[in-house]
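step: validate -> pass
step: tokenize input -> pass
step: predict -> running
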Amino acid sequence: MSGTLLADIGGTHARFAWADGQGGHAAPLVLKVADFPRIEDAFAAAGPADRALVALAGPVRDGVCRMTNSPWGEVRADGLGVPDARLLNDLEAQAWLLPHLTLGDTAGLGGPARAQGPALLINPGTGLGVAQPIPGAGAVATEGGHVTLAGADAAEDAVLAALRDRFGHASAERALSGPGFAHLGAAG
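step: predict -> pass
step: emit ->
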């Protein structure tokens, strides 16, 4: 199938869907990252495309993504076998969507959701993604999952010390992600 391929590439799964140009899309194709030695192989399995919009779990600069928690490592827009491929951070892609949601689509933490106000998108998955929508200006991708955690009491300090001993750094991602939950169990 040719046309626009939408891709969400994480550390565990690669999801592909075809946009129909009318606001609809076909059912997604979900592939396991571990089943493909290279991202190019996963794109080949999805089929040929004229264009691709690719959201990846990692920082994107100048058409290159360094995938943080993936064996695929560096991904280049010009290396995907698609004539017009655009890369962006996966959480940035989600943050672009937030202004289009209604209050019924959201849930507030610490009280009811509000129509206006600051927002932050946090996604614990294979890693910990963080992005911020900027009203009227788009979205900002961050590497917030790599911030250093600080303990609030002796028990938390002990857990963070165990994470530092094991990994050299007690980042938010080491505690608040799929693998992070296991790290907390081992540390605590």
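step: describe -> The mean pLDDT is 89.
step: cleanup -> pass
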